[in-house]
């Protein structure tokens, strides 16, 4: 197989996957989330798409693999394999700039950077009050941009999000937790 | 009609992996019991989300245990579902602590803190496992356990430092739970084999770090751990408390009644 054909097939696969939405946050694509790690051809010319799952228990993982397979099938790219790669572990640092912007517009505060080698700092219960200064890791309100926010719940509608409210505009919002 | 039980074998590497997988699985089973019963909606969601992470971790660990078992002479590579649902009680190797009934909310959050702290320390070390798959599972799970620990610790302090009633309940929970913790650090041949082969640390290697972290948390919460006696529970050797049979009866019922049934 010549180089141009190889590139063509890989490029076609990327294009086919590009619009596939995340099943739980459909405003994001899988590429925005950084779940699609690699598209490659093996020696026999079989196409392989490598995905890295987000959370160990994320119930969307199977749906994500199936929707990638559907998109490849629809683009006439069979035969192909969709495989899962566990290492390196998925991190919210892989969410694209476009993805962060889309999250904000959707009303979800995007995650801040995961400190290298640290992940989430373990801290004990911190009482919040309207007059307390905001901690630097706290998300700002995706609606009015105020940094004065407080956490209502450590877990939101899914494990990857927490529930917050803005102390300025009083609106509740979700935060995509850095992990 | 029932499905025959499977025999996962006594290979130490498989036992080591099953202990971790069962630790996650049985803890998740108890947490899942809170679905629809937590004191507030946010905690209902939080506890079941923790359970979901733990089930995901258990799935990966049990899958790995099945693969390693097959490499080491088991007649088949048992899959995650067979290992989760078709073993006899004596073949479940979780420490007794996590099979105890869920208790009240204070008991639940205190057990969560004890387990999540232990898990964080274990996952941290397992990132260096010579088994690349186990190292990858650990790197992923570590990130999750940090959130679990933080959430549980928040509640332990909040209850300990709350009303006289919440303080009393947390202290009661600590008095009941503490005697089950020595098992989390007991040395044995399975651990020695894992340490020697580079599969993972001995559970005993976590003891000092765990005690230091728990002591800081309990101090902050204003409660005191009782002295532990000489009795050490034996769940991770397959000898369980009276509660385990009932837990398994509920957990295994569907697979036993409808063999191979799927959603």
Textual characterization of the structure:
The complex is a heterodimer of chains A (179) and B (263). Chain A folds into two domains: 3-90, Fe-S cluster assembly (FSCA) (GMP Synthetase, Chain A, domain 3, 2-Layer Sandwich); 95-176, no CATH class. Chain A is 24% helix and 19% strand. Chain A is built from four helices and seven strands, in the order H-H-E-E-H-E-H-E-E-E-E. Chain A has helices at residues 3-17, 30-33, 61-74, 97-106, and strands spanning 36-41, 47-51, 80-84, 108-109, 149-153, 161-166, 172-176. Chain B is mainly alpha-helical and 263 residues long. Chain B has one domain: Ferritin, CATH 1.20.1260.10. In chain B, 62% of the residues lie in helices and 0% in strands. The chains are: A alpha/beta (179), B mainly alpha (263). Chain A binds chain B through residues 55-59, 86-91, 119-125, 152-159, 163, 177, 179, and chain B through 42, 45-46, 49-57, 59-60, 120, 132-133, 135-137, 139-144, 146-147, 149-151, 153-155, 157-158, 161, 217, 220.
Summarize the structure.
The complex is a heterodimer of chains A (179) and B (263). Chain A has helices spanning 3-17, 30-33, 61-74, 97-106, and strands spanning 36-41, 47-51, 80-84, 108-109, 149-153, 161-166, 172-176.
Short descriptors:
heterodimer, A: 179 residues, alpha/beta, GMP Synthetase, Chain A, domain 3, 2 domains, four-stranded mixed sheet, three-stranded mixed sheet, 7 strands, B: 263 residues, mainly alpha, Ferritin, 9 helices, 62% helix, 0% strand
């Amino acid at each position: 197989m010549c180089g141009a054909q190889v590139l063509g097939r890989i490029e076609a696969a990327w294009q086919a996957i590009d619009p596939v939405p995340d099943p739980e946050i459909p405003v994001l694509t899988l590429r925005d989330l950084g779940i699609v790690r690699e598209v490659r051809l093996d020696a026999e010319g079989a196409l392989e798409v490598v995905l890295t799952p987000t959370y160990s228990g994320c119930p969307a993982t199977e749906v994500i693999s199936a929707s990638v397979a559907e998109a490849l099938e629809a683009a006439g790219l069979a035969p192909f394999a969709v495989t899962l790669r566990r290492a390196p572990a998925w991190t919210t640092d892989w969410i694209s700039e476009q993805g962060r912007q889309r999250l904000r517009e959707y009303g979800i505060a995007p995650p801040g950077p995961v400190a290298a080698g640290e992940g989430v700092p373990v801290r004990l219960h911190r009482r919040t009050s309207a007059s307390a200064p905001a901690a630097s890791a706290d998300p700002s309100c995706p609606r009015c941009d105020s940094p004065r926010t407080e956490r209502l719940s450590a877990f939101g509608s899914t494990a990857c999000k927490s529930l917050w409210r803005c102390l300025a505009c009083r609106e509740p919002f979700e935060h995509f937790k850095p992990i | 009609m029932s499905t025959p039980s499977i025999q996962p074998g006594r290979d130490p590497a498989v036992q080591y992996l099953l202990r971790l997988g069962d630790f996650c699985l049985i803890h998740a089973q108890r947490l899942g019991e809170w679905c629809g019963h937590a004191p507030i909606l946010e905690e209902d969601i939080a506890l079941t989300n923790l359970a979901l992470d733990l089930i995901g971790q258990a799935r990966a660990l049990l899958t790995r245990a099945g693969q390693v078992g097959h490499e080491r002479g088991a007649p088949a590579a048992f899959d995650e579902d067979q290992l989760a649902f078709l073993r006899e009680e004596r073949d479940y190797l979780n420490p007794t602590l996590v099979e105890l009934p869920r208790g009240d909310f204070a008991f639940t959050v205190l057990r969560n803190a004890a387990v999540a702290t232990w898990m964080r320390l274990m996952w941290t070390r397992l990132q260096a496992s010579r088994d690349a798959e186990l190292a990858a599972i650990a790197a992923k799970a570590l990130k999750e356990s940090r959130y679990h620990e933080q959430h549980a610790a928040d509640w332990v302090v909040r209850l300990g430092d709350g009303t006289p009633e919440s303080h009393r309940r947390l202290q009661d929970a600590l008095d009941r739970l503490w005697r089950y913790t020595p098992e989390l650090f007991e040395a044995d041949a399975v651990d020695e084999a894992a340490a020697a082969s580079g599969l993972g640390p001995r559970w005993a290697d976590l003891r000092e770090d765990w005690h230091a972290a728990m002591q800081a948390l309990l101090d902050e919460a204003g409660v005191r751990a009782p002295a532990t006696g000489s009795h050490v529970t034996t769940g991770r050797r397959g000898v369980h408390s009276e509660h385990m049979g009932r837990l398994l009866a509920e957990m295994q019922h569907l697979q036993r009644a409808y063999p191979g049934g799927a959603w």
